[in-house]
Specification:
173 residues; mainly alpha; two-stranded antiparallel sheet; 6 helices
Length: 173
């Protein structure tokens, strides 16, 4: 598919995305497009500025109580700190490394983090890590599949995704 072939588009939420403020994807997409048309291109700050008005459709997608918003921001900072650390083999320090801590579901109301080594040593959490890798590869291909310049890359990514899918299928829960 290329954008030139598309006759009609509609907005929907990306996989694993919740509706902020109970808004529909169509409402959010339409309002973001209005901001884009007004600004030409936009930053997250432009969205916040537009949504400050109580009457703006995106207003309820934000937390406007500063105490609560500050705590939520600190939680996002903590998540960024957790994601920022990778493990690298000391024999090949130039290697990219692998994320040191991963989010897993242990049946609580919310995901928790554990070390990647610990996660890969336990069957249930190893399956979660592999399934998440599969979902991320799948999301990547969905996000960028219209970029024909990357056709060869997508063949490789699809092969990797298929290998992960085969592994998941062979290791049922």
């Amino acid at each position: 598919m290329s954008f030139e072939d598309v006759k009609e588009l509609k907005y929907r939420f990306a996989e694993a995305t919740r509706a902020p403020g109970g808004l529909s994807a169509e409402t959010i997409g339409t309002e973001l497009e209005k901001i884009r048309r007004e600004k030409g291109e936009f930053r997250p700050q432009d969205v916040v500025d537009a949504a400050k008005s109580d009457s703006h459709p995106l207003h309820r997608a934000f937390e406007w109580n500063d105490d609560i918003a500050a705590e939520k921001y600190r939680l996002e900072q903590a998540r960024a700190i957790i994601r920022s650390v990778v493990l690298v083999d000391v024999k090949t320090p130039e290697a990219k490394g692998v994320r040191a801590f991963v989010s897993i579901d242990v049946g609580k109301k919310y995901p928790v983090y554990t070390g990647i080594i610990n996660a890969m040593q336990v069957k249930e959490t190893r399956e979660q890590v592999v399934e998440k890798a599969y979902r991320e590869l799948h999301a990547f291909t969905l996000k960028y599949h219209v970029l024909l310049d990357f056709a060869d890359l997508f063949d490789t990514v699809r092969k990797a995704r298929d290998i992960l899918k085969d592994w998941i299928d062979k290791h049922p829960k």
